[in-house]
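As promised in the previous annual report, we have extended the structural survey to additional targets. Below is the entry for ChbG/HpnK family deacetylase.
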Amino acid sequence: MDSRLAARLGFDADARLLIVNCDDLGSSHAANLATHRALAEGIATDATLMVPCPWAPEAVQLCRGFPLGIHLTLTSEYEGCRWRGLTQGASLHDARGFLPRSAAEALDRLTPEDARAECLAQIETALSWGVDVTHLDAHMGVMQDRADLFEVYLDLAAQFGLPVRMASAEDCARQGFGARERATARGILFNEQMLYAWPTPAGPTLRAALPRLAPGVTEIFAHPALDGEELRGCSPASAALRIDDAQSLLDPSLAEDIAQHGVRRIGFRALRDAQRRGG
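The corresponding structure token record, generated without further manual editing, is:
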């Protein structure tokens, strides 16, 4: 099936377009270094910044000039490193004063008013740091997993003229609140397909999907980080996966596979610019 979005972006309607996003930028020095390398030397086309995290300012300095979106962050799940929100909403924080450890806990307690204030503060903070924000996505899916929070997600995307990461069509159907239809009705662009790798490495997932990649815009997200004491101290449970993702994004053979299958890599900036042009 042809893609109207591909044509809108200036490609043939049957073009197969791939966004390779690095999630969790700013969560650690190890993530910052690996993401910068993936953007500068590898196949990554985008990264999303976790603004409340302690290494976010360094991430902005290190990755200045590269396309950065906002990884709207309402959880603090790392074992050895916790962070607080930028705002003080009562539903945002756990008993220890940190953002909740899990998406389930966040979804159970979070009010849309507190979510709106916090996410707005994250976007405005990134803009104040000089980030040319390309898109919004939702760390651990929180802003996409409840109908009222999803409406806030779209409100912010519309307010700032930004595209969003969208869950797969199958997941949207299971959610049952018409996520794709609601975004389309508001003129908000999004990836048409989603390749989910987590909690397995992104490289093999992408390589296996390339022969059957559908026309239009597909996103895959990875979680690159460099090996070392910091990573293994912050998040030992996912360290091996993050190290593997960092290596895969720099693998020349994966870049060759993408090209050999006729897949073109693009970034969310192309969607943002098309959305702002309208039509």
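The first helix runs from residue 4 to 8. The radius of gyration is 18 Å. These points will be discussed at the next consortium meeting with the crystallography subgroup.
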